Protein: DUF5795 family protein
Amino acid sequence: MSNRVVQGRMVTPEKLAELVEGESVLEAESIADADRDCPDCGGDVITVGYMPSVTEFVTGFKCQECDWSDDDR
Structure:
């Protein structure tokens, strides 16, 4: 699935990666369900793989209901 609803807004993989990273990213993979619940609100967590720079690949996690996000750094 390419687009998902996050906090009431439809987001693309690139936009989701920007929400997690806090700035623009070079490239993002498709959004997928993460096998975990949000530690803040218990909501559903989704994941996206992205490249914030040419030499780095990061997996980001974002709650669909609240502001919580994290990455695998």
